[in-house]
Amino acid sequence: MLPNNDIVTNVYTGKDGVFEGLQSGSILLDSSTVDPSVPTALEKIANSKGSFFLDTPVSGGVIAAQSGELTFMVGGDKQIFEKAQGVLSGMGKKLVHCGGIGMGQAAKICNNMLLGISMAGVAEAMNLGIRLGLDGKQLMDIINNSTGRCWSSEIYNPVPGLMPNVPSARDYEGGFYSGLIAKDLGLAQGLATRTGSPIPMGALASQIYRLMCKAGLEVRDFSSVYKFIQDGQKI
Amino acid sequence: MLPNNDIVTNVYTGKDGVFEGLQSGSILLDSSTVDPSVPTALEKIANSKGSFFLDTPVSGGVIAAQSGELTFMVGGDKQIFEKAQGVLSGMGKKLVHCGGIGMGQAAKICNNMLLGISMAGVAEAMNLGIRLGLDGKQLMDIINNSTGRCWSSEIYNPVPGLMPNVPSARDYEGGFYSGLIAKDLGLAQGLATRTGSPIPMGALASQIYRLMCKAGLEVRDFSSVYKFIQDGQKI
Amino acid sequence: MLPNNDIVTNVYTGKDGVFEGLQSGSILLDSSTVDPSVPTALEKIANSKGSFFLDTPVSGGVIAAQSGELTFMVGGDKQIFEKAQGVLSGMGKKLVHCGGIGMGQAAKICNNMLLGISMAGVAEAMNLGIRLGLDGKQLMDIINNSTGRCWSSEIYNPVPGLMPNVPSARDYEGGFYSGLIAKDLGLAQGLATRTGSPIPMGALASQIYRLMCKAGLEVRDFSSVYKFIQDGQKI
Amino acid sequence: MLPNNDIVTNVYTGKDGVFEGLQSGSILLDSSTVDPSVPTALEKIANSKGSFFLDTPVSGGVIAAQSGELTFMVGGDKQIFEKAQGVLSGMGKKLVHCGGIGMGQAAKICNNMLLGISMAGVAEAMNLGIRLGLDGKQLMDIINNSTGRCWSSEIYNPVPGLMPNVPSARDYEGGFYSGLIAKDLGLAQGLATRTGSPIPMGALASQIYRLMCKAGLEVRDFSSVYKFIQDGQKI
């Protein structure tokens, strides 16, 4: 799981990279989140060496990884996917074959775009409610029993003091960095532009996390969007 | 449950309205979604006539109303709330006292702002994924098992053909009209401006539903945002 | 020229306010930027006292005020407007009768919404270009000779070092505060919601300036949006 | 002047393309608006054949082209630029050397992003004002004498009936298509993502023009954004 297109490509194709000395018949599994064109290119090289490549990005975050409950979204040859299931199920409780090479990335990027939108939405709704005089815990409880409920509200609430063991409980240390979701939303932008798909909310969320990176929150958990809209301040 | 500030106010204070001939000691429960200033004003009048007023907006939509599983968000005097619980529980499975008069509205408006954001986000993510070649049903399944999951994706998916008995299964007839969520988001804007609370995602969602009203989707379910971003066309 | 609805209303109707002891036949000219409902209410009171009221907001900023080159946008009775021209022309080079009472505000708020949009747009375009390696002065020159040219680029460029005697030349001290354009954009939101007018760009600009207020730029010139998108940092 | 990256590349490098049989010592001038990486790659090939390449995108639209008053933004070797000035000045009144190869594109894309923002802003402000009861011609006049003034308002106003000889006067036929500015804004997104530059207004404008393409306005002038926000309807 590496952070961007160039680094992933280089790990395989660079000097002393994975492709050097690769044993024929190997199955390469890469769980980075990158543009679908990256695994597409790497699969071609792997095939030319008698090996195989699957893109296997995940969802669930650090918490699900620790408990072996990740969702793997897999792109590539279906038979190879079936062979890889044993390994993947060691960390994942749900393995989904999403289609040909790169389609795991497509699914991951769509999910993360929605995640970025939801988290910003939860932050705005919670902040507005609290400023109007509502109790944060109660508002969270109402939302979680209503039509606004979502993973960002139920499992990973961005408001400090409402939940234990989430980044908002520790000043947004650790977790899934703003800089990383900004990168994923940048990938979504690229795919949306290529396919002419309107993503107004996704585009704005992308800009919000990018602004957060400028405001000193790049290596804080992305739920620090709550902090950002409250006061824009650097941590 | 009436559609806007003026209509609600008029039903109580207008000629032959509720306040004319109101018996002393009555408890008035109003489940409309309106600006918190409306119940605040009506409570004053009710009190001056020896009666009581609670704002009791709901979440859950037509489906939850039919099954008696609404969430009631209640603002007003706590003792009066306790007296009203018997009546409210006939239609609701969760009754929450949110604070003084108007605070039920505050909670409802925050929830609905998040709902409007989430639904637009689901529509964008599903449309992008399908255009990239993913199977809609599979993408929905992935999202519902990942960090993007939310009520709009799990219970009320906007993509036609994925779920039975939701508005997207019947060309967005019935349900919760775009015009109504546009109104709720307009209320959210007003409260955010009054309190100086940033709501970038909420503000954009507000504009998207308003544009949908202009595009002929005002009296279609708000999940028709999927149709809107696909082709902007009038139904 | 006072900063908001409540303060303006209070100056006229409050204790020891303008309306106390107002001489019959007076013409009241108010150049604050407020919701059109404020002058509408004040005109009624003025008329009831045998006097007159015009809303006369201005455009041009501190620079135009100092040189007597403001634009006055006037709402109210046309005959009264004609009587007031002598006074107004002392500070304004252009006096426009925009219609009945409140219509000066309508025009002002529309202009300022566009101003807020343009300034943010100039800041983004200049910042992007400079990051791509363009020379700031040259990019400004190109824009000012092309289709992107606007007042914010030609007269009031937000990039430090390109122009003398503008707020960007003095670390955004003075000028037209971010907090004030945020207020004007809030008024625009209210009017747009009331009339169901889509203003996606205006709504987003409103949120950007509101975020800037949270980030410590409330009492800096609104062209500090350039600073905000660069690094979000507090001054 | 060709419409996208692939077409431009193909015209030079494809079968029977420009590079086949190119005379050594030629200077190639390309006025398409494309990603800066395109002229960068083409310059390399040209140099390898003993020739030269400049990217020379323009601003001004059909009107300026007809009158020979275009602005040319030129990227590439400065000495080659000087040799090309004679040819370029036949169509342009302003020739600007913006830097190395691709920098003409950078300048053009920044300008056009601002243009797309301004035009949407003018459309919103004019529509809001007219709905509030202002006279369109008068509002345009006020804006053009105030801080909201910009090329989109002064030269190319999007409201039908206010100006002769502009696309809004002929139901948005001809001019600069929504589909083309959507493409330019897509290029801006790509550059902003690559450099981590926040462009919230540019990102939203990009989505608005993309939505317009879906709504049937792709081959109408981009000032039809006025029509789009009014009623979202297909022409």
From TrEMBL, chains A, B, C, D:
GO biological process, one term: L-valine catabolic process
Reactions it catalyzes: 3-hydroxy-2-methylpropanoate + NAD(+) = 2-methyl-3-oxopropanoate + NADH + H(+)
Annotated keywords: Branched-chain amino acid catabolism, NAD, Oxidoreductase
Pfam families referenced in this protein's UniProt entry, alphabetically: NAD_binding_11, NAD_binding_2
Domain 3-hydroxyisobutyrate dehydrogenase-like NAD-binding: 102-228
GO CC annotations, alphabetized: mitochondrion
Domain of life (superkingdom): Eukaryota
Enzyme class: oxidoreductase
E.C. code: 1.1.1.31
Pathway the protein contributes to: Amino-acid degradation; L-valine degradation
GO terms assigned for molecular function: 3-hydroxyisobutyrate dehydrogenase activity; NAD binding; NADP binding
Residue ranges of every copy of the 6-phosphogluconate dehydrogenase NADP-binding domain listed in the record: 1-99
Family classification: Belongs to the HIBADH-related family. 3-hydroxyisobutyrate dehydrogenase subfamily.
PANTHER family linked to this entry: 3-HYDROXYISOBUTYRATE DEHYDROGENASE, MITOCHONDRIAL, 3-HYDROXYISOBUTYRATE DEHYDROGENASE-RELATED
Protein name listed in UniProt: 3-hydroxyisobutyrate dehydrogenase
